[in-house]
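## retry 2 of 3
previous attempt timed out at serialization; input unchanged, resubmitting
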Amino acid sequence: MRDADAIVFVVDDDPSIRDAIKSLISLAGLRVETFGTAQEFLRNERPDLPGCVVLDVELPGLSGLDLQRELAAQGIKLPIIFITSYGDIPMSVRAMKAGAAEFLTKPFRDQDLLDAIQQALERDRAARHHSKEIAELRKRFDALTSREREVMNLVVGGWLNKQIGFELEISEITVKIHRGRVMNKMGAQSLAELVKMTERLELPAAKEQSAKPR
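## retry succeeded, writing output
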């Protein structure tokens, strides 16, 4: 599991458990930081790396579930692996519905925790990759002019150049120019790829094909 470009945060108020988990994770080759309270964790400046949180449910002050809600409110999407000595089904269901990666009841097997950490790190790494791709697509889209966006919207809706020209009151040649610029700026090699880009950006749907002028 060795991965220098990832980090695991452990939040548990029991020093012995905290140290044991830190030792286990360190031996697996992962960077790890530990905290005794949720407040301490929130004050900590976290490195911009794939990561996850191994979080005790029962904590002084803010509980683990409280911290989960606080992280969500702040837009921090680190996967959370809950650990607890007092877990029950309603509690675990609540945690999982709120996005927890795993819910382990103490005592748990070392391998169960390591497996959960590996899956959580893979989940965070995939989410970061997705966010990076979306940010790059958004940057390309923001570089389009308002006219190019209008043309793009109709192009992905299946409109022909002639129909787009009629709709926007511009010549077919001008439509072709705008269309070419859209494809170039968006980095799309085909219409199908451009359509997928608009879907990933969750842009408003193009006008229905039936609404096109004849």
